[in-house]
């Protein structure tokens, strides 16, 4: 994923994107200061609109200092400029972090008793809520109904994270990390600037695998590969930003969890296979961006393998691992699901990269195959990527060199076109 946010912040008109950062009255309000810093340092024009209760947690001077703008909570400050209408009308994005249960309820029912709720009613740009509350509040039927209604209207409500809450409590309801909320908002802004629909995957459940599996020789050694997980994480983040329910199955990846994404961690190919098969049962689409090891040792030593005194190396016998992509493509739990595979090819004397990829597409039985030319170690660990997307229907889409996020969105565009409607 590209980290050159300054370049990406510029809009087609040359002005800085206008972001409204709403802050509701929860203990996680202090984390919004970090989110504000992410926006301002990457070139966005940010107006902070806290609720009165939010100022009980973080005072107005903090928001004013970090945003470079005065802060108000009511509709009467600067009334000659009609802020309760103007702020929402001029925004390119409104993000509320944290969004409390009370704020979600007000937004759902169109209440407008302060500047933030008025802004939400007048905004015609993408709106993102990052909820934070105790687990019982998040799981209450009233909150769930409010979230469902907001999502039906095209609002992006990020699933809260699991972890430590206020006091000694732990559970689902924690505000996602500010960096990950920022990345999601950046995805939404980029699509909005391009005129693309902001929540075209709303109501869809997608599964993404990422990283590289390990096959152990002994307690300290394993067979592995160079997959970093960056492309899989970009795919998960992009899908979440487009409104999907995302399950990310991560094989030995150390990246931060994308906001609003359920992460399942695995190590071996067998574990990856079990997790993917289980998750795909209810999935509209599965994207296999992970790099499973093709082989595993038939015997795994319980103790570290020692060097031989005579300098000889131990013989290692390998067995072939299951072909996960072929299995979920040819034995689908849902006939209308869309399956996407990845092929890292170098080409050889039997054919070019695309020749070999077309053979693989037919053999695997998937709907789309994303082909990377990895000659010389290209792609692995890089923030950028380029690819050719081959379709079982004969389609070919060339994706030029760019960020892995950009490639992720092209892949989801192709998936979206193949998903059943109605």
UniProtKB/TrEMBL annotation:
InterPro entries according to UniProt: CoaB-like_sf (IPR035929), CoaBC (IPR005252), DNA/pantothenate-metab_flavo_C (IPR007085), Flavin_trans-like (IPR036551), Flavoprotein (IPR003382)
Coiled coil: none
Co-factor binding details: Binds 1 FMN per subunit.
Cofactors: Mg(2+); FMN
EC number assigned by the record: 4.1.1.36, 6.3.2.5
Residue intervals of the DNA/pantothenate metabolism flavoprotein C-terminal domain: 201-416
GO MF annotation: an example: phosphopantothenate--cysteine ligase activity
Biological or metabolic pathway of the protein: Cofactor biosynthesis; coenzyme A biosynthesis; CoA from (R)-pantothenate: step 3/5; Cofactor biosynthesis; coenzyme A biosynthesis; CoA from (R)-pantothenate: step 2/5
Function: Catalyzes two sequential steps in the biosynthesis of coenzyme A. In the first step cysteine is conjugated to 4'-phosphopantothenate to form 4-phosphopantothenoylcysteine. In the second step the latter compound is decarboxylated to form 4'-phosphopantotheine.
Name used for this protein in its record: Coenzyme A biosynthesis bifunctional protein CoaBC
Source organism (scientific name): Nocardioides mangrovi
Lineage: Bacteria, Bacillati, Actinomycetota, Actinomycetes, Propionibacteriales
């Amino acid at each position: 994923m590209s980290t050159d946010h300054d370049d990406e912040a510029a809009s087609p008109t040359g002005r800085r994107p206008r972001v409204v950062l709403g802050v509701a009255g929860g203990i996680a309000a202090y984390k919004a200061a970090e989110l504000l810093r992410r926006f301002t340092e990457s070139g966005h024009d940010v107006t902070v609109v806290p609720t009165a209760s939010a100022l009980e947690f973080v005072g107005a001077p903090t928001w004013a200092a970090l945003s470079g703008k005065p802060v108000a909570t009511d509709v009467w400050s600067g009334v000659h400029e009609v802020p309760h209408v103007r702020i929402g009308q001029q925004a390119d994005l409104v993000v509320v972090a944290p969004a409390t249960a009370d704020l979600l309820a007000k937004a759902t029912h169109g209440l407008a008793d302060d500047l933030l709720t008025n802004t939400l009613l007048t905004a015609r740009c993408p709106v993102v809520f990052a909820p934070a509350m105790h687990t019982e509040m998040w799981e209450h039927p009233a909150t769930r109904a409010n979230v469902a209604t907001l999502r039906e209207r095209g609002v992006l409500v990020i699933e809260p994270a699991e972890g430590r809450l206020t006091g000694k409590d732990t559970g689902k309801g924690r505000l996602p990390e500010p960096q990950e909320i920022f990345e999601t908002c950046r995805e939404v802004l980029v699509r909005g600037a391009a005129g693309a629909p902001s929540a075209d995957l709303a109501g869809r459940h997608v599964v993404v695998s990422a990283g590289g599996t390990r096959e152990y020789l002994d307690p300290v050694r394993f067979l592995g590969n160079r997959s970093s997980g960056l492309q899989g994480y970009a795919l998960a983040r992009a899908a979440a930003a487009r409104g999907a329910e995302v399950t990310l199955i991560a094989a030995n990846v150390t990246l931060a969890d994308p906001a609003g994404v359920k992460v399942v961690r695995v190590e071996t190919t067998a574990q990856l296979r079990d997790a993917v098969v289980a998750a795909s049962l209810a999935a509209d689409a599965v994207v296999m961006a992970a790099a499973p090891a093709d082989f595993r040792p038939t015997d795994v030593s319980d103790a570290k393998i020692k060097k031989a005194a005579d300098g000889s190396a131990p013989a290692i016998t390998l067995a072939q691992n299951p072909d996960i992509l072929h299995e979920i493509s040819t034995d689908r739990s849902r006939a209308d699901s869309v399956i996407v595979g990845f092929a890292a090819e170098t080409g050889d004397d039997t054919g070019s990269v695309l020749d070999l990829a077309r053979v693989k597409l037919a053999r695997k039985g998937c709907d789309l195959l994303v082909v990377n030319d990895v000659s010389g170690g290209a792609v692995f660990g890089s923030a950028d990527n380029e690819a050719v997307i081959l379709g079982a229907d004969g389609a070919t889409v060339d994706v030029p060199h760019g960020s892995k996020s950009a490639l992720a969105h092209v892949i989801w565009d192709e998936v979206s076109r193949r998903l059943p409607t109605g």
